[in-house]
Every structure is written in C-alpha cells, then in structure tokens.
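Troubleshooting: if your tokenizer reports a length mismatch, compare your output against this known-good record of 136 residues.
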Amino acid sequence: MIERYTGFPFVRRRFEDIFNSFNDDVDRDLVPKSDIYEEGNSFYITLEIPGLKKEDVKIKLEDNLLVIEGEKKIDKEIEGRKYHYCERASGTFQRSFRVPDYIKIDSIKAKFDNGILTVELPKTEEEKKTREIEID
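Known-good structure output:
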C-alpha cells in the first residue's frame, strides 16, 4: 500500500514499523493487556495473564509507581515430547502504572480469578473532597 501522506506522522509511523520489526513477536506476547477504570471510590487496574498462578506474579508500589511483574513458564523439556510447532510464549513480563498521590497505600488490594488480575486502588478522603471553584 502506498501512503499519500508525508511529514512527521508518516516518518514516525515508518520509524515505528522498522523499530518494531527488530522486536521478537514473543516479547509482545508476554506483555499482558490491561484496563484502567474508576468505579465508586476506587481506581481499578486489570491485567489478562492466563496460564499463571498467583504465585507467579509480584506487585509492588514504590514512589507512586505500581509495578506488576511475573513469569510465564512453559516446560518444553518433557521426556518423550517432541514439539513441531509452538506459539505459546514463555518468559518474564513487567507492567508499570503511575498512580495518583491520593491513593490509600495501606488499602490496596489485589485478586486473581480466571487469568485476570484486578488491583483495587482506593482513593483517600482528600481526593473525594475535591470540588470545582468558581472564578469571580
């Protein structure tokens, strides 16, 4: 397909295509898809991490950066088994999310169900008291 557009967006897109071609597809398969939403008095981050157990995942918060990391293991060294084709990726992954200052650090919760990790980040009262101020 021939692109009609020139200029920075075109050049940037081409550069990204070239750069991404150097990355192994397996690495992209390991990065879990995520959603971030707000409901009630909390923010939620969900990640798809099928095939893992909760013991395979670590979560930490440091300097307002929530880091979720884990390792997906596939044992390909089983005696008598000869793989002809394998699309499933194995290796480590890490996702980081900047969180606001008004999160109750001591009340953060995480649950893991059917390959979905959900992290709840409750807001403090300070954020809830935020209001719009009219300009005179």
